[in-house]
Amino acid sequence: MASPARPQPVALARPPWLRVRFADGPNHQDLQELVRGHSLHTVCEEAHCPNIGECWEHRTATFMILGRICTRACRFCAVATGVPTEPDEDEPVRVAEAAAKMGLRHVVVTSVARDDLPDGGAAIFAETIRQIRKCRPDASIEVLIPDFGGDRAALRVVMDARPDILNHNMETVRRLQRQVRAKARYDRSLDVLRNAKAMDSAVRTKSGLMLGVGETWDEIVDTLRDLRAIACDIVTIGQYLRPSPGHLALERYYAPEEFAELKRIGLAMGFHHVESGPLVRSSYHAHEAI
Predict the structure, then answer these.
(1) Sign of the C-alpha dihedral computed for residues 114, 120, 122 and 124 taken in this order
(2) Is 142 helix (H, G, I), strand (E, B) or coil?
(3) How far apart are CA 168 and CA 203, in angstroms?
(4) 20 to 30 A Cα–Cα from 51, which one of 23, 128, 237, 275?
């Protein structure tokens, strides 16, 4: 007798609070042309961010440096993975020029992971910060960095360039790290944030969590406690949205009331700023935290 077919996972219906209105106004189009004209990449596009319409219409974007090919293959991420090209030494200048033309008061810069480079791309991050300072001296700068393989010297290069906010995402709870981002380590990510604060206590540290991949409520709260224990200042909490059927499965949706409760819990723990909601991403409303 043939064995019964294995049940297929059922796609969860998207709740009404996750409906995103696409914006394609003049600011959105102008920003798209500006990014293309400077041969730049944004994580807004590469990671299929649901807030791209809102943010671009408000003339805010997160620049993604060091190319568009990541050396890691995190199961939740839509960014392409493979063998990257050589770093573009002129990219920091183009990012700074674009930020100036946009008139940004808060500039967010992130990157793909570059495990192929000796410093993980830290020098390019630092030069990007310096170039933005030249073009936009009054702007605050936030960098969302990879873990640099735990290399403290690489982290020091970025910190010496004096960003205003040093962001590194935990992404998920300790138990699910290997399942969600196989090449990362929970304690190594905590160390990045701890070491950054130790190197320059004036720089605000920030991290982010995405929910809906199988974590429990207690695990979420424990992760927030771990972040506060190393004096992390800012945290973002958002809903995981599966980019494609080949990505990490979505286990559940959290209601807006649950995100509101996590914000209350985070503020009670002592975080200076908590951005918590279904559509929150690492740089969503980033200017409000500064």
Answers:
(1) negative
(2) strand
(3) 13
(4) 128
The parent domain of residue 226 ranges over 22-289
**Spatial separation of the C-alpha atoms in residues 148 and 181, rounded to whole Å:** 14
The total of structural domains in the chain comes to 1
Residue 144's φ and ψ, nearest 5 degrees, are -105, 105
For residue 15, give the DSSP letter: P
Place of tokens 């183009």: 94
Pairing of strands 41-42, 62-65: antiparallel
Confidence bin at 76 (pLDDT 50/70/90):
confident
Query: Model confidence at 63, in pLDDT bands (50, 70, 90)?
Result: confident
Going from the C-alpha of 181 to that of each of 21, 56, 170, 172, 260, the distances in angstroms are 30, 28, 10, 9, 26
Q: Is residue 29 domain-resident?
A: yes
Burial class from Cβ neighbours inside 10 Å (0-12, 13-18, 19+) for residue 26 reads exposed
Task: Give residue for tokens 């700074």.
Answer: 96
Cα–Cα distance measured from residue 111 to residue 97, given in angstroms and rounded to the nearest whole number: 18
Residue 23, sorted as left (phi over 0), alpha (psi -120 to 50) or beta, turns out to be beta
Domain with 62 in it: what CATH number?
3.20.20.70
